[in-house]
Amino acid sequence: MHVPDGFINAPVSAVAGVVAAGAVAVSLRGARRELDERTAPLAGLVAAFVFAVQMLNFPVAAGTSGHLLGGALAAILVGPYTGVLCIAVVLLMQGILFADGGLTALGVNISVMGVVTVVVAYGLFRGLTSVLPRTRRSTTAAAFVAALVSVPAAAVAFTLLYAIGGTTDVPLGKVLTAMVGVHVLIGIGEAAITALTVGAVLAVRPDLVHGSRGLAAPLKLRVDGELVDAPAAAPAPAAPRSTRKVWAAGLVAALLLAGFVSFYASADPDGLEKVAADQGIDEKVEEHGAADSPLADYGVKDVENARISGGLAGVIGVGVTVVVGSGVFWAVRRRRTREASGTTTGTRSD
């Protein structure tokens, strides 16, 4: 659902850019509370994994494909504020390096693919986990539903922006019907990928899934024939578990997906591209500002073999995204540590 330049006019794109910048600023502050010594190194990996999986377009209907948006997955794994930052990093790398998603439309894309998907998915996920049994299976099911709903929600958000600032005169009802219809199908794929990934992490390291924190069911005791919550016992101190194995496994998976599996992705246009072509939204599309990039269209310039070109571009994309993302989250984590240290230093007993 990467919106190119020319779909939305300049004033609305500028306003969306301001909204996106504000959301990123708020997320930078909120991420300080979410990131700790275990999750900070993994947040960059989550961004790289989302980048890799977004290269895997899957068929959803005749002549139409879809790909992961990733907002639900990122929010559930590392938290909503960090999730917004993950998607923003991915979209920035895609726009600058791969000419995917317009540069003037970057604010539109962050708002639609990052902010809307994260807010809708995480809000629904937390609502479902608060009423469902506190089990791994229920958490995975909640992730499935949240991811499924987040995709058509993003489609509705794009349609609203198009209604305000669309550059072509196309009936809004047709755009909305087409966008929501195809993105419900794409949402099923998004939900499956999200549930499988969240379930896999829950199976090996549930402590690393932000959305599952505090979901442990309280111990019950039978008193006078009635079940009551047992008094909470003080947790025993435990040595922090290393995340190196999880990080290495995730990075290898991302590299394999982007470098090898992506060659078998569907070549059909994605949901937005298909709707735009069918409804005439793309009549005023503009050439991408980074169209001459050596990695434009997910291929390495001057490499003739399509398999090698696409695979190498995917590997480079994963590498750059994990480095940039890790740098951002390391800086956010360091800022939190400095603030905590300053607060402790400035506190003195008289």
From TrEMBL:
Q: Note the superkingdom of the native organism.
A: Bacteria
Compartments annotated for it: namely: Cell membrane
Pfam families, per this entry? CbiM, PDGLE
Keyword Isomerase on entry: no
Q: Where are the transmembrane segments?
A: 7-28, 40-60, 72-97, 103-125, 141-164, 184-204, 246-265, 308-332
PANTHER family linked:
METAL TRANSPORT PROTEIN HI_1621-RELATED (PTHR34229:SF1)
Protein's UniProt name: Cobalt/nickel transport system permease protein
Organism encoding this protein = Streptomyces clavifer
Domain (PDGLE) ranges: 244-334
The reply on keyword 4Fe-4S is: no
InterPro entries found in the cross-reference section: CbiM/NikMN (IPR002751), PDGLE_dom (IPR025937)
